Amino acid sequence: MSRDVDLGKYTTLGIGGMAKWLTEAETETELGRAVEWAEKNKVEWTVIGAGSNLLVSDQGYSGLIIVNKTAGSGMMLNDLVDQMNSRGLAGMECLAGIPGSVGGAVYGNAGAYGQTISDYLVGMKTLNKFWLKSECNFGYRESIFKKNREIILEVEFDLPKGDRDVLVAESDKIRELRKRKYPPGMKCPGSFFKNLFFEQLPEMARRQIPSDKIKEGKVAAGYLLEMMGARGMRLGGAQVADYHGNLIFNTDGAKASEVWGLAQKLQALVRNEFGVMLEPEVQLVGRFRRRG
Known about the structure:
This protein is α+β, with helices and mostly antiparallel strands.
């Protein structure tokens, strides 16, 4: 266990203050011991994976950060996709290129191009029990694990058979698409805001959205943001991509407060125009000031 660790090195945004305590757990036993230590010493704790989808406060984290590097849930999702493709098992090929761990993907019910990680999930083992899929309350970028303190250790899938070559080709195609959106070396957490369910939008918003912008019952947050001129907006070292309204990245030396400040400005623009508050998909670690 280490003290005063720079959390910017553990996030894809490259941003974050210091963790008072940090440990990297490579086994389930080490994960359990880290939690036991924190509970015994009355220290707040948080588990992270590959550091994507995270915004860590400039003030850091006053408790224990546990970095999950176990062979199960700590495995990179991209590696799992390749393994399943090579075995001719379908259902995960469209998740290729997502820069997160398996545990993190299940925690946030990650998805892309019409697939979500929970589609063929049977259940999962945590530190305390085995959870059936029906117990996990999966929804759009949601699961019960965002509300409880369970740590995902192993995940069980029941994947249908597929053609190995077709699956590999599909994943390769998707990786190329993702490279255009997220060029190698770009410091970003992925899409910042969740998309919105069209039927849940206020009537004033629904009237302004063309039918071709509604896909699978949802409207892209990026579309609403781009209508507000979000592309290229900047606050300090934080900037919205000039080609996608829902992509905030660290240009060079951005502070978490700048990323969060820019995100709140974008929220206000959409709220004032459409009467809806965009919800961050990115998880916040540490303390952040909220407007209003």
